[in-house]
Fold this protein.
Amino acid sequence: MSEEVGFTSMAGAKAEHDAPEVGIGLLGYAFMGKAHTNAFKKIPYIMYPPVAVPRLVAICGRNEDAVKEAARRYGYEGYYTDWRKMLENDAIQVFDNGGPNNAHAEPSIAAAQAGKHVFCEKPLARTAQEARSMLDAVEKAGVKHMVAFNYRFVPAVVQARKLIESGKLGRIYHWRAVYLQEWGMDPTMPTSWRFQKDVAGSGALGDLGAHIIDLARFLVGEPKKLMGMTQNWISQRPSGSDPNTMVPSDVDDGFVATLEFENGALGTLEASRFCQGRKNYNSFEINGEHGSIVFNLERLNELNVFWAGDDPKETRGFHNALISEGFHPYWSNWWPHGHMIGWEHSFVHEFHHFFDAIVNEKDVAPYGATFVDGYRNAVICDAIVESARSGRMVDITY
């Protein structure tokens, strides 16, 4: 059959403008493994032209049948059941740690010592001491490092930061944030690692609270002291292997904290997995000298804003701003305004930022969260736990 008139074959052509490949070795194949891989696959044609093209070299997990299936499903070249063996693979330049919290420190430290750049899910570690050992390792190795506080890469959150940086909000007086979910309320739910202190380190505090602690530091600044309370409402859950056997559930199910920032602002933090009707309600409000900003992750393409003096007093109030214009952060890579993006796209922006830092020798900070941020976050989490234990105000020292 003759070639179709006017048809030009692009077989073998590189759509990536010869961007360098970055070999990925991923630990973990479940929730975060899927989210991270989804981002890797989108980067070459969404963040175009890409600064780097992720090469899905290997994925690792303990369950061979499950990780083998994940490698096939996601398109990895191969799989491992031992992360130590995976780190011996010279094709891997970036170690992406999406494992449970107790699998963050040792593999990440070993990856840094092997010369791999390290990306690690949040919280960075179960304790500040553990996080400090990870920070020391990546700094000694001289590799790039980043913690997956992906909400820094939601366009509306970046826009809020830019408004604060511009001075438009003026002096900041208040920060209040909540992160509320409902999924932990069922006492018949079999236990998982998220309910086990030796694995998770903490419950709602590290799982959800770490995010709003990071956003507080990202948007307002460093806190200097705090008071906290934690509560455990379900102390036993059915074993995952035997529903008739009860095992301890020894993490916090919810917490609240008040804090004072170095700049004089006051703040509140609250997180819980016991809030009926709340699916993924991560919301913050910032009150400043000249206005206020409100964000809700469940409506992540919007900001509610108030600017003092902008409107006639008869109609003055909050108004809704749709963050979807081409001039808003990251939107030039996506769709025409008003055609929304979702939670998973924050990972696209996040990894693009990390790869740019690797390939072009840029700093990950201040817009990306480094292991410094992960360590400081862990210090604040530990301070909340200590305050809850002692019933006293705790100074934050890094």
User: Anything to note?
Assistant: The domain at 21-151 is CATH 3.40.50.720 (Rossmann fold). The chain is about 30% helix and 25% strand.
